[in-house]
């Protein structure tokens, strides 16, 4: 039927940076319609709280009616990607056996983006701050009423409630993330059986059989009991065989692979429904699934590190705040825990093997400007020395530098901020007030001056920024101009110490002297910068 190679070939669409948006989903459907104008029909079901359209896409003409809804939680985008790739696959290969099974055996109804307001905010909730999947009873939200109405009007035999679970969730006690979680939502607190529930378990077992070989068996039973306010339970009570499908995590954060895995499972399961194969499936493998664990992995787990040269041996758990599958980036990881973390693991793991862990250093490098922040030749000796935060120099009379610094475009390799020199011009044409205003706008971190007394009592002093001499700090060995500063002097909160809640700017030094430098919990990679812009915008006057 639909092979893994097919899934790889047809997983062309990815979640856009920053999450799916209503207009982007509409454009993706428009493209399918252009390629195959007779493939599908579209119906506007209604609008979100803020007036964004919610559509039903219908295709196929078979007797088995399948309704799937995605992104009920706005920060759970993977199945939106999967459904759009499914549409593109059907348009591209109408003669494929899986396509024929789906379209002749099934009528598919797809609500591809149920919570467009939440998607805009990359939020679980809708514009009113309400979780739609806890609104099945009162139906106070327009999105909830739309879902209820389409269930009644479309009258499906099968329902697919599509979500993302926390990407750090494991299967039972495993130290690797669950890539898939399945659940047949119970009809009531007693978990009463019925023909539709049994059929839903057969559907779940079908999905399981297809995906398990491709994810090393990392499939769990979603850890939830009966919730009377959840939509999966309500749809199940309508006699619709409903399955909750949760996208989980992937080793090394390979979200593209997760897109492919779930497309593979979805197409093959729907093709099996269309081919009337579900009735012969043994549901036992679904019921045998171990539940998702309450244990959460860390995004990064550092094992067996020595805390400073004379400190204890500890493990580190680092997480990236706000990081999800919704087009986010792993940046500025925080040390969540350190100590003996036996039995815990990470989505990504680093064996320190006794390497000494110290905080990253901060350096002032006058030749670094906004225009060369990612110059590998300039940064290489700094990285080798364990520098994770670097302060360059902005020429306030260089228009291109000033304009570029205002934009803060791109991502720096290291955590990067800037200093300004006073006086800005030899003839002092820029007065202290003008200087202070520009420095405040630019978010400059410190003032460099040969005469600190010259700023006393001026607006420059009111900025409250560190004021240093050009020769302050400690010279950095093997670098002609760089000078080391303590992060405290530079007013960089959360840096310069190893502590819970601090930014994971870490240097691991092995016994042979080899160093591994982490910027916010990620190894430095010039091809994928992970530093942060360091600013200190202080309002004055």
Break the fold down into its secondary structure elements and pairings.
Layout: H1 4-10, H2 22-35, E1 40-47, E2 53-60, E3 64-69, H3 78-92, H4 97-105, E4 106-111, H5 116-121, H6 142-154, E5 158-164, E6 169-171, E7 180-183, H7 195-211, E8 219-221, H8 231-237, E9 241-247, H9 255-274, H10 284-287, E10 292-296, E11 298-307, E12 313-319, E13 334-339, E14 346-351, E15 356-359, E16 361-364, H11 376-384, E17 387-394, H12 399-407, E18 415-421, H13 432-442, E19 446-448, H14 459-462, E20 467-468, E21 474-475, E22 483-485, E23 506-509, E24 515-519, E25 522-523
Helix pairs in contact: 1-9, 2-3, 3-9, 4-9, 7-9
Structure description:
With 541 residues, the protein is of the alpha/beta class. It folds into 3 domains: 4-295, Zn peptidases (Aminopeptidase); 297-357, no CATH class; 359-523. It has helices spanning 4-10, 22-35, 78-92, 97-105, 116-121, 142-154, 195-211, 231-237, 255-274, 284-287, 376-384, 399-407, 432-442, 459-462, and strands at residues 40-47, 53-60, 64-69, 106-111, 158-164, 169-171, 180-183, 219-221, 241-247, 292-296, 298-307, 313-319, 334-339, 346-351, 356-359, 361-364, 387-394, 415-421, 446-448, 467-468, 474-475, 483-485, 506-509, 515-519, 522-523. An 8-stranded mixed β-sheet has the order 1-2-4-3-5-9-7-8, with helices on both faces. Strands 11, 12, 13, 14, 15, 23, 24 and 25 form an 8-stranded mixed β-sheet that branches. The termini are far apart. The model has no long low-confidence stretch (mean pLDDT 93).
């Amino acid at each position: 039927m639909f092979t893994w190679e097919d899934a790889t070939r047809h997983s062309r669409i990815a979640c856009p940076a920053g999450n799916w948006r209503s207009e982007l989903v509409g454009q993706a459907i428009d493209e399918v319609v252009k390629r195959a104008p007779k493939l599908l029909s579209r119906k506007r079901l209604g609008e979100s709280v803020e007036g964004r359209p919610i559509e039903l896409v219908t295709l196929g003409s078979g007797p088995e009616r399948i309704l799937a809804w995605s992104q009920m939680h706005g920060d759970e985008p993977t199945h939106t990607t999967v459904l759009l790739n499914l549409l593109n696959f059907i348009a591209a290969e109408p003669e494929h056996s899986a396509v024929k099974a789906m379209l002749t055996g099934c009528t598919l109804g797809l609500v591809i983006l149920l919570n467009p307001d939440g998607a805009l905010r990359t939020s679980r909730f809708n514009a009113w701050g309400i979780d739609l999947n806890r609104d099945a009873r009162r139906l106070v939200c327009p999105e909830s009423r739309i879902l209820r109405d389409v269930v009644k009007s479309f009258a499906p035999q099968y329902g697919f409630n599509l979500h993302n679970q926390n990407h750090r969730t494991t299967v039972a006690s495993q130290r690797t993330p669950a890539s898939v979680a399945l659940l047949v939502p119970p009809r009531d607190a007693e978990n009463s059986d019925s023909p539709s529930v049994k059929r839903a378990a057969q559907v779940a077992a079908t999905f399981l059989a297809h995906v398990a070989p491709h994810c090393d068996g990392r499939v769990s039973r979603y850890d939830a009991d009966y919730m009377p306010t959840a939509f999966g339970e309500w749809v199940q009570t309508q006699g619709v065989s409903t399955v909750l499908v949760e996208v989980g995590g992937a080793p090394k954060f390979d979200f593209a692979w997760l897109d492919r895995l779930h497309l593979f499972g979805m197409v093959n399961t729907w093709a099996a429904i269309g081919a009337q194969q579900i009735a012969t499936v043994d549901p036992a493998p679904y019921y045998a699934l171990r539940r998702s664990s309450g244990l959460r992995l860390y995004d990064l787990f550092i094992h067996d590190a020595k805390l400073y040269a004379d400190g204890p041996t500890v493990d580190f758990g680092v997480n990236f705040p706000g990081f999800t599958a919704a087009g986010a980036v792993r940046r500025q990881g925080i040390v969540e825990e350190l100590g003996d973390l036996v039995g815990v693991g990470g989505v990504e793991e680093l064996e320190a093997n006794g390497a000494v862990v110290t905080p990253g250093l901060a350096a002032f490098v006058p030749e670094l400007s906004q225009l060369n922040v990612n110059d590998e030749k300039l940064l290489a000796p700094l990285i080798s020395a364990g520098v994770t935060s670097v302060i360059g120099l902005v020429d306030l009379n260089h228009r291109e530098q000033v304009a570029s610094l205002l934009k803060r475009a791109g991502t720096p390799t290291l955590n990067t901020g800037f200093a300004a020199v006073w006086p800005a011009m030899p003839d002092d044409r820029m007065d202290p007030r003008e200087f202070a205003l520009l420095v405040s706008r630019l978010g400059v971190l410190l003032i460099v001056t040969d005469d600190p007394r010259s700023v006393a009592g001026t607006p420059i002093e009111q900025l409250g920024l560190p004021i240093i001499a050009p020769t302050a700090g400690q010279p950095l060995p093997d670098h002609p101009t760089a000078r080391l500063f303590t992060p405290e002097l530079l007013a960089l909160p959360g840096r310069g110490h190893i502590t819970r809640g601090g930014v994971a700017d870490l240097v691991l030094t092995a016994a042979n002297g080899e160093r591994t430098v982490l910027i916010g919990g990620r190894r430095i990679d010039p091809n994928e910068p992970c530093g942060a812009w360091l600013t200190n915008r202080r309002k004055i006057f």
